[in-house]
Each structure stands twice: as structure tokens, then as C-alpha cells.
Amino acid sequence: MSEKKIKNFLVEGPITPEKIATSIAHHQVKTNIGAHDIFLGQVRADQIEGKEVIAIDYSAYAEMANKVFDEIREAAFDKYDLTCAHIYHSIGVVKVGELCLFVFTSSKHRAMAFDACRYITEEIKAKAPVFGKEVFENSSFQWKSNQ
Q1: Residue 128 pLDDT more than 80?
Q2: What is the architecture of the domain spanning 10-47+60-128?
Q3: Could you tell me how many helices (H) and strands (E) the chain has, helices first?
Q4: Are 131 and 110 within 8 A, CB to CB?
């Protein structure tokens, strides 16, 4: 018996608006979908101890992170009546204002898409082994807490 091939959920650098638009456009042919919900995580210019965050440098052990993302996605399908669910998380440097997380859920009805999108997003924040270093304007950094 062959092992399930796990998808790569990690994207090098920021998630582009073009990637989001393309994902949405690909779903126009799926006429059994009545609703989509999207969560977009964006890097903030936080002020920490008088220093401004200019970027977050994300890292992950890809094999482990992809396995957790896959488990979260599959759990969402078990819990909600979804048609599609997509997750993309950045690795590498993502500057302030750029997108680092894209969760996209689709279902027949909006409540399921909304609930599943929130569930996936919260599970990622709680369980995904992706780590971020907040990079400051003076090139110093600190590890980011997952909030």
C-alpha cells in the first residue's frame, strides 16, 4: 500500500494577489459551490520596545509542517461539508504589508465556508510548526509568539 502524497502548503516569500486571484478564478467552473470564505494574514508594523517590525522571516521543517497542514485540512473536511479547502503559508522573508497566510474554503452554503475558514486558521495558529522572526529596522530580530 502506498503512502498518501502530502501537498506542499509552503510558499517561498509573500503570497501574491495574483496567486489569490488565480485560486478564485479556478473555482468558477465548480458550479456546485455556493460560497467561499478567505482569510488573509498580513505582516503588521508592530512597535516592540521602541523598535518597528519591518518584516517577518518565517521558517519551517517543511516535511513536518506540510503534514500538520494536511491534517488540519483533512480535519476540516471531516468536520464541515466543504467542497474545497486551500492553505498557503509563507516561508522566508515577508515584509510589512505583504501576505503570509492564505486560507480559502468553499462549500454549498456560506455558514460552512465561514466556519471552516475560521477553524483552519485557528488550528494553524495553534498547531502548525512554522516559526517567525520579527525583523526590526536596525536589522535586529526576535522570535515571534504565535498569536
Answers
A1: yes
A2: Alpha-Beta Complex (3.90)
A3: 3, 8
A4: no
**Residue reference for cell 518597528:** 52
| Strand 35-42 with 99-107, pairing | antiparallel
pLDDT, tens digit (0-9, with 9 covering 90-100), for 69-98: 999 999 999 999 999 999 999 999 999 999
C-alpha cell at 39: 482569510
Structure-block grid coordinates of residue 120: 483552519
Burial annotation 86-116 (CB, 10 A radius, 16+ → b, else e): bbbbbbebbeeebbbbbbbbbbeeeebbbbb
State how far the Cα of 85 lies from the Cα of 103, in Å rounded to an integer. 7
pTM to 2 decimal places = 0.91
CA dihedral (109, 111, 68, 15) positive or negative? positive
